[in-house]
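Predict the structure of Zinc-dependent alcohol dehydrogenase family protein.
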Amino acid sequence: MMQAMVLHAPGQPLRLERRPIPLPAAGELRLRVLACAVCRTDLHVVDGDLPLRTLPVVPGHEIVGEVEAIGDGVNGHAIGDRVGVPWLGHTCGHCAFCMAGRENLCDTPRFTGYDRDGGFASHVVAEADFCLPLGDATLDAAHIAPLMCAGLIGWRSLKAAGEGVQRLGLYGFGAAAHLIAQVAVAQGREVYAFTRAGDAAGQAFARSLGAVWAGASDEAPPERLDAAIIFAPAGPLVPLALQAVRKGGRVVCGGIHMSDIPAFPYRLLWEERELVSVANLTRADGREFLDIVRQHPPQVHVTTYALQQANEAMADLRAGRIEGAAVLIP
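Done. Here is the predicted structure for Zinc-dependent alcohol dehydrogenase family protein.
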């Protein structure tokens, strides 16, 4: 039997359940979960901010697992391999977006821990083609798990910010920002970190990871930014970030959910500033980011919890008590 923390209705605590260990279908892998990080998207799923398409469901999409069983037709994986399982769990492969190499915008995707059961469990089944081989990754499972979404979305957001960006602002210094800040610093960029007002510990944390400046999100940075990435799910940050970037600068919204953006004067967008969003990720993003991690291994700050403490971990994340990422260890 396996164990899983299961969501039966939005806004309710997850329930610990025992289930039969599943068999992988054709094209699938069954994994013994070694670690699963807790993402803010999991909060949006559990709290009902995202419309739930499948219930009951096991959340969790930042999974590191060991291959235990292999379905028919799977090549390139062996029993005992370590793989990562990200948010994007399936694409159709034939819609206009998939055919154009933009599978993150697939018309009929399936997402791990949302449309199909995820990693808040001792075992999980995933499509082999969407599992990322971890190979010789030197980090342990708990420190790799946050890379599977916080890292990947951070990487896609950094690419969306633009190649010529030197001064980069990060709004919300949580799991994604603490990882991508280190990548940006390694690339020779200046990082400016924005946290909740009064969060001296978070600002010190950002500076310890290479930020040249850290302050409250409603403060003006000492220099105009070339671009800014908003990881916090707070719409009021959008006009603040637009105000902080230079002419021709870009603001990237990196989350899957955000509270409403308030009205703001056109002058904040004028002078060819851009406001863009990032949706999901591609398998190419995963391969690129893991190559970057091998070249520049980040400090991954984690707080670990037992599987049965999933509700506690989410409460700590919701209240802003986590420095870095929360990770469940079955």
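The chain has a mean pLDDT of 95.
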